Amino acid sequence: MIAPKNRGPMSYDTVKAEAGLTAALAKTPAEVVATLTESGLKGRGGAGFPTGLKWKFAAESQGQDKYVICNADEGEPGTFKDRFLLTDYAGLVMDGMTAGGWAIGAKHGIIYLRGEYTYMCAHLEALLQARRDKQLLGKNVGGHQGFDFDIEIRMGSGAYVCGEETALIESLEGQRGEPRNRPPFPVDTGFMDKPSIVNNVETFAYVACILVKGADWFKKTGTAKSTGLKIFSVSGDCERPGVYEFPMGITVADLLSAVGGSDAKAVQIGGASGYCAPAAEFNRTIAYEDIATGGSIIVFGQNRDMLKVAKNFLEFFVEESCGQCTPCRDGNPKLLEGVELLEKGRCSTKYLSELCSLGETMQLASKCGLGQTSANAFLSIVKHFGPDVMARTPHCAGHRKS
Amino acid sequence: MLVNDLERQNSDIVAWLDKYGRDRSALLPVLQEIQKKYSCVSNQAMQVVADHLGIHPVEVYSVVSFYAFLDDKPKGKNVIRLCRTISCDMQGKAHIARQLENDLGIGFGETSPDGQFTLEWANCIGMCDQGPALMVNDRVYTSVTPSMVDEILEPCRKSCGVYALASKEEGQA
Ligand SMILES: Cc1cc2nc3c(=O)[nH]c(=O)nc-3n(C[C@H](O)[C@H](O)[C@H](O)COP(=O)(O)O)c2cc1C
Ligand code: SF4
Ligand code: FES
User: Domains, chain A, ranges and CATH?
Assistant: First the structure.
């Protein structure tokens, strides 16, 4: 297993594996949900839906068979924190999932692991088996009569869009990973049309921490709307790339100074689907109410050519679009063609503004989060980095080497 | 494929279906097993799976064609996937790409004539703090330099038996 280049201290170090499950089983299912609601925890996969509320809906859904699904499809460019959590703190993730089973009344847990992480499978299977041996999975979990819960691992097969929760469910059902219309939401019509909670790896790990340390512990950091801590994967032009835990609401500048990237030209917050912040905005905060992120931070140094960055991201989306809806299927290649024109210095101001309005249409009209966000980086780069983008010639400033 | 090979594949498929179950949700795990062992999901394999699951083979094809890690054409024994996403790009993936092409004698998207290597691009493989990163089948290599490329390929050549031949030729020269 490959360790990150650098890692900061983490609250996970202060919580033992299994403690989260013990704490959950000491409460009633309703109390578990109430504790999460009280903590203000929001989903760490990017969209930021309140976890307590999601679990409450699923708990209230009628039906015997329910599912707890851990989204380990981590495909957002620049994100590697879930890989790290599954290697170093998988026990906490499994505690969180089992607590989910207890809270919503589910018997089945599924870890949907991206195909690229196949090498982790043996390690995770061994941990699951050890938990079965200790009766932390299987029949009567933790000695609780009637609480049966087990976890299986299912692999992805190389499709970024399968990280979108309804596409993930389609994929589990043996279909193409094409996102569904929502509603209905997975909490009532999920895997095999049964009520299901889909949560990010990190969300489950924080669930375990919150159950052990209490909602107040979590709430005391972060902002009113974005409570608690968050794991960040940092890469790009900085001295100490790696995995870090920071409070929500940290300013971009503070984060950069912690990783040795203070002289950056720009920072991509939230991966390819995120926002590209120029130096003038480094006083903004990383939080659901300001710049949201699933944890990907990519630092761009002074000599980076930002148009090349936009191009790299668009190439990614052209390839990963599932092709189901027109704004995304046709919009992304159009934007990429536009970037190629810009690269050659052959794009009129009028056409550039048409490209930008196409980007805005994609944000509004696409069916799922992929198409709704794929123009973000392009739009923010065009807005903030005019000299890199417009009127390029082989000799102009925009044509710096990358 | 020889008749014997076909029979062997068919009986493998039946065994995997027994293991994963005979409903639609077993489709992906079964296809993943077929891909892993046979380096592709052939038309024949799709037909067999479809018959057992009671679905049209086109349904199986639509799934195979959707996922990057499933192929209906044979892949090399060693599939090399170099990350082309931005963090690896900034850390010099272009040099690694060039060296891979030079040392394998094939371009991206191609399979070597002896069926041993396929060279492909990958999107971010979760090693962005230590790029350039690549995968050889399920194994990950990080902070790859052009001079490491040959070291990475060497064990694959050995496992394919190409090594014995090549080193013999070198010895004679
Ligand atoms: C294109 C796309 C890809 C996504 N990829 C992931 C992913 O890899 N991991 C993840 O946890 N959530 C991903 N999400 C978000 C999920 O749809 C979902 O919101 C999340 O798993 C819910 O868990 P949470 O509430 O714990 O964040 C993705 C969303 C979209 C639109
Ligand atoms: S927005 Fe893109 S990925 Fe999402 S459903 Fe439409 S085509 Fe598919
Ligand atoms: S960008 Fe190459 S591994 Fe993430």
Answer: 6-219 (3.40.50.11540), 229-300 (3.10.20.600), 306-390 (1.20.1440.230)
CA of A188 to the centre of ligand 2 (A): 22
Option in B67, B122, B139 nearest A157 (CB): B67
β-bridge partners, A229: A247
Per-residue pLDDT of chain B (173 residues), as tens digits, is 667 888 999 999 999 999 999 999 999 999 999 999 999 999 999 999 999 999 999 999 999 999 999 999 999 999 999 999 999 999 999 999 999 999 999 999 999 999 999 999 999 999 999 999 999 999 999 999 999 999 999 999 887 655 444 444 444 33
Q: Does the CA dihedral B136-B140-B146-B150 come out positive or negative?
A: negative
The residue to mutate among B128, B134, B141, having the most atoms of ligand 3 within 8 angstroms of its beta carbon, is B128
The predicted model scores a pTM of 0.95
Contact A15, A90 (CB under 8 A): no
The first and second tokens of residue A177, run together, are 């990973």
> Is the Cβ of A234 closer than 8 Å to some Cβ of chain B?
yes
Q: Please report the atom of ligand 1 found closest to the CA of residue A273.
A: 1
ipTM of the complex: 0.94
